[in-house]
Specification:
Number of domains: 2
Shape: globular
Number of strands: 9
Bound molecules: N-carbamoyl-L-aspartate
Number of helices: 10
CATH superfamily of the largest domain: Aspartate/ornithine carbamoyltransferase
Radius of gyration: 19 Å
Distance between the termini: 19 Å
Structural class: alpha/beta
Largest sheet: 5 strands, parallel
Strand content: 15-25%
Oligomer: single chain
Length: 309
């Protein structure tokens, strides 16, 4: 039972609870009209202290498609954050009006602080360079729907593995499935954080290698998860400029990949996937964005205890 819970990081839910969400998402995809009133009378708050397109829109679209309503801000300068209000006080106030809150914040741990100060479910929609568990739900539903299972695969993660919160969450979640191998492709300076390497990969005995060149490993991959270099997390613009085009996947490189390889990307993309890859049937990133809305419908409905009406 997920009712009343918060989702702050991927391990907050068990594998069985993930499966419950994916099964519900499958049914929503197959019979959307069945769920059109499931969250009637409920209100979702979106508190976005950082820019977003997909995450915020997909949450809002998800709630509206469940018959619920949405309020929120997408620009912290329009909220009392500019007056110096703490996240604890903000959530206490929001909880007076709303049934569930979705928070994106530049500070790691901010959604957790919010959850500790309220009884309503809080969903982490990205906290700094830390975690992004609902992007992971999106990624997993895409893999499950397009491939059938999460086990026995070689997953390449490429780009900014240091600051890319979607990468940290996806590695965590996939580490619970059988026979997963990771190939971590990044420049030396953008390798995964030490806590991911030690606490997740090494501790659980998961096979992984860290490489710099994409071309050397492309043919081995079942999934290639591309990421954007996270400009907003760099201290120094010069470093960003030097590293931003480290990897560019294009149609020519795709010739080396397996016919069944899936190309995923949380989006937004900058230059790391050339537009000539978009028409390739292995390019699933826009489809992935759509799965994101359905899995968020399943999540909101489950946390609110919504029913088919
Ligand atoms: C990601 C994020 O915000 O971490 N975007 C998203 O939510 N789909 C990835 C990114 O911004 O690069």
């Amino acid at each position: 039972m997920l009712k009343g819970k918060s989702l702050l990081e991927p391990m907050d839910f068990s594998i069985e609870e993930y499966e419950e969400l994916f099964t519900l998402a499958d049914d929503i995809i197959a019979n959307p009209s069945k769920y059109a009133h499931s969250c009637e009378g409920k209100l979702l708050a979106t508190l976005f202290y950082e820019p977003s397109t997909r995450t915020r829109f997909s949450f809002e679209a998800a709630m509206l498609r469940l018959g619920g309503k949405v309020i929120g801000f997408s620009e912290p300068n329009s909220s009392s954050a500019t007056k110096g209000e703490s996240i604890a006080d903000t959530i206490r106030t929001v909880a007076c009006y709303c049934d569930i809150a979705v928070i994106r914040h530049p500070k790691e741990g901010a959604p957790r602080v919010a959850a500790q100060n309220t009884d309503i479910p809080v969903i982490n929609a990205g906290d700094g360079g830390h975690q992004h568990p609902t992007q992971t739900l999106t990624d997993l539903l895409t893999i499950r729907s397009e491939r059938g299972s999460f086990s026995d695969m070689t997953v390449g993660l490429c780009g900014d593995l240091k600051f890319g919160r979607t990468v940290h969450s996806l590695i965590k979640a996939l580490s619970r499935y059988q026979n997963i191998r990771f190939i971590l492709i990044s420049p030396e300076e953008l390798r995964i954080p030490e806590y991911v390497r030690k606490e997740i990969l090494i501790k659980n005995g998961i096979a992984f290698e860290e490489v710099e060149r994409m071309q050397d490993v492309l043919s081995k991959l079942d999934i290639l998860y591309m990421t954007r270099v996270q400009r907003e997390r760099f201290f120094n613009e010069q470093d960003y400029i030097r590293l931003k085009d480290s990897y560019i996947l294009d149609a020519e490189k795709m010739k080396q990949a397996k016919d069944s390889m899936m190309v995923l990307h949380p989006l937004p993309r900058v230059n790391e996937i050339a537009v000539d890859v978009d028409a390739d049937p292995r390019a699933l990133y826009f489809k992935q964005a759509k799965y994101g809305m359905y899995v968020r419908m399943a999540l909101i409905m489950s946390l609110l205890g919504g029913e088919i009406k």
